[in-house]
Amino acid sequence: MENMIKQRRVSFSELLQRDNKESFSKDKRSPNWCHQRNSQDYVSIDDEHMAAIAAATFAIHSLEEKAISQFQRKEKSREEASMKTNMSQADKAPSFSRPSRPREAYANRSLSIYGSGNTKVDAWEKAKLLKIQNRYEKSNLTILQWENEKKARAKRRVEEKKKELEQKRSINWQHYQNKLARIDHVAGGARSQAEDTTRNHEKKVKERAREMRSLGVTSPKYCFLC
């Protein structure tokens, strides 16, 4: 698109230069004729020339704006397509599941050696394949040992945490029981004290009533002992 704009600019500039050359050559060929033209003709020629320049400038500006808008639309559509592609890839992302272990299939497969008649090459191939298989078995054994050790350690940690939780639960339960016992003891003592106070007050009231009866007091308000 930029090349097209440049070509349009070149074509317009060539057109203007051609017009200037033609006008200059005409002026040079017939000077008397130019003197015969009146001032209004010169004004109209200048107006037409300025109008042509303005039209060319407007056309170039329009082409530039059109090219810029097309480029922006293309970039926007490209970004939207890229975002949609990334979102679809994110949606299709595989879950982190435990991969399958093909070690059994590889370990159990038999070594196939294609003999070519050269016993040295066959022996070398067999030795190399056996060496590779032994290396694989050793690495597989190391991985298996590491896996079992990590699993055993994780299990021990879980058991230890479980044991600690059980101990904490037992200790908390014991604290709870002790707290309940202290509450019962305090409540029982307060209840017993309230009962003793009530009995003492009742005893005092009964003794005073018996004394008033023995003295023949008809109204308690006249009794100075009350």
UniProtKB/TrEMBL annotation:
Domain Remorin C-terminal per the UniProt entry, residue ranges: 118-217
Coiled coil regions, renumbered to chain: 144-171
PANTHER family hit by this protein: GB|AAD39278.1, OS02G0116800 PROTEIN
Transmembrane segments: none
Family, as annotated: Belongs to the remorin family.
Compositional bias ranges of the Basic and acidic residues kind: 16-30, 70-82
Region named Disordered: 1-35, 70-103
UniProtKB keywords: Coiled coil
The name this protein goes by in its record: Remorin C-terminal domain-containing protein
Database matches in InterPro entries: Remorin_C (IPR005516)
Entry superkingdom: Eukaryota
